[in-house]
Hints:
This protein has eight helices and five strands; from the N terminus they run ααβαβαβααααββ. By secondary structure, the chain is α/β, with parallel strands linked by helices.
Amino acid sequence: MSDQNLTPDQALDKLMKGNQRFVNGWPDRPNQSAYRRREVVGGQHPFAVILSCSDSRVPPEIVFDQGLGDLFVMRVAGNVLSGVVIGSIEYAVEHLQVPLVMVLGHDSCGAVTEAVKGVHLLGHLGALIEVLRPAVDIAKAHGGDVVSHAIDANVRIAVTQLKESQPIVAPLVNDGKVKIVGARYHLESGIVNLLE
């Protein structure tokens, strides 16, 4: 089946199988040839959108063992949403008909750690910390490892915001054409776990 015809669940299965190959140390490294490079010159048909942190240890194409044209990736510190990020996701799901959106958090996220510390940061870093504050508040109410809980809460907040995003994303989710999931990447094992 062509990636253009994948259902949301098939796209998620393909993504997670790629992660399993990466974890096992036997990646296929698909779609990374000169032929594929020429093949995608005329257009792109990614099967998944990944909103990931800009952390250099979390490159989605490698973590999910994918290649050129397979993933529509946005990387921003703390994998946070903004109008520009949501607009990019809208483009992918509406114009490119991508059936799956994954918000991918990760262990030891520096942005979340700074937000938990609650220190005042100069420049635009303060704006990033403000966006993360709701996740930190949820994590503090939860107790335990506040940074770890805030990482997951931040992902869940973004997933909820995307599912409710009007006028483009929410109708596609409600019609079953797009699935939005949250996940967490574990730096040591390489495993990506879906968040409920």
